[in-house]
Amino acid sequence: MLHLLDESLEEFLRAEVPLPRSEIDIVFAAPDKEWSARVSRPTVNLYLWDVRRNLSARDLGVETVRDADGRVRQRPPLPQVDCRYLITGWTSDIGDEHALLGATMAALPRVPELDDRYLHEAYRAVKPIPKITLAAGGAGENSDFWSASAASSNPAWTSRPPRPSTSPCWSPRAHRSCATPSPPPPTAPTPPPACSSAATAPPRRAP
C-alpha cells in the first residue's frame, strides 16, 4: 500500500504546487550521492525514511465493516501508521532550489488531509483519510541516515502524508511554471515546524 501513498502524494503536489510533469520530476529514491549525480533536471525528492505506529491515536473500541461478500461484521480498529518523508529540492541553481523547496513546503499546510481526487482508488476506502503535517524533530534524529545521504548538503524537511489563500508558484529563471512570479525563497528552510506526511533541516556541509 505504501507505493499507492507515493502515487497519491505525487498527484497532490503536481496539482497544488504545481509541479508540471514536463518540467519537474518527482522521485521517491534515496537521495544518496549516487542518485544525486544522475539528476539532470529540476527534481523534488520525497524519500520515505521512517514508518512507525502512531501511539497517540486511540485504537479502542470496535468498528463496523462490510466484507467483500456484503456481510457486516465488527472488528478492532486497525492501527494508524505515521509515514515520514524527507523532502528535498534539486536544481542547478541554489536560488531555484530554494524556490522549488519553498513552494512545495507551502502547498502541504493548505489542506488537513489528502482530498479524494488525489487518493489512489484503493485508499479511498481507508479511514481515517491520510493526513499531512510538518513533522517536528532534529537533524540528529537519524544521524546514520544523514551521514550517508547527499541530502545532508541540501535544505530539507520532513512531512507526514495541511492553507494560505493562494499558492506560491515555483517559477525558476529557466523553468517558468506559472504566469506570476513566485515569492523570494527564504535564506534557509523553516525549521520543523505517517499514514500522515513531516520537516527537518539537516546540517549543510562545507564544500
TrEMBL record:
Compositionally biased intervals (Pro residues): 181-194
InterPro entries listed in its UniProt record: Pvc16_N
Domain of life: Bacteria
Pfam families membership: Pvc16_N
Bias kind Low complexity: ranges: 147-180, 195-207
Region (Disordered): 146-207
Domain Pvc16 N-terminal: 6-149
Name listed for the protein in its UniProt record: Pvc16 N-terminal domain-containing protein
Organism from which the protein derives: Actinokineospora iranica
